[in-house]
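Researcher: I'm preparing a figure for a lab meeting and need a structural model of a single chain. I don't have an experimental structure, so a prediction will have to do for now. The sequence is pasted below. Please return the structure as tokens so I can convert it later.
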Amino acid sequence: MARQIILSFALLSIIHHGYALMCYQCAPSMPGCNEFNWRGMGYLGSSCPESDDVCVKLIERKGANIQITRSCLSTLEAIRTDVPADRYEGCRPASLDIRLGNYVNNSIKEYDIHRNYFDETTWCFCFLDHRCNGSSSISVPMIGIVTVAIWSTFKIMFSN
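Model: Understood. Here is the structure written out token by token.
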């Protein structure tokens, strides 16, 4: 009985991040962040810091140039002010922040203080599945993997 209690505590300490949402996280400067088969590359994403987080795919267009950023919403909220108010599943245009760079007199246009360099900015939100901010819609349910791992551990330990 004591062995089962110790084993239960050991398993619970291993999966303390079991309910966090897994999202792909990359910046436009990283190779392969644009439309790419992430599953073929073997990258399984990172868990989001918040328990009620949302995966985000941020698409910014300037003519034919497209830059894609993938991350958790709580990570991007700290540095972006153009997050749309509606954050349910789907894609929406960025909101306009009229207070952004209001009291700044800067003649260097590369700083992009008013955040108006891109012609179109689209925010895509998803939270119903792990790694849903990728380019393909195929994903492995994490609860199935954890269940199989726990079942096989118990089967190996208690087969004697």
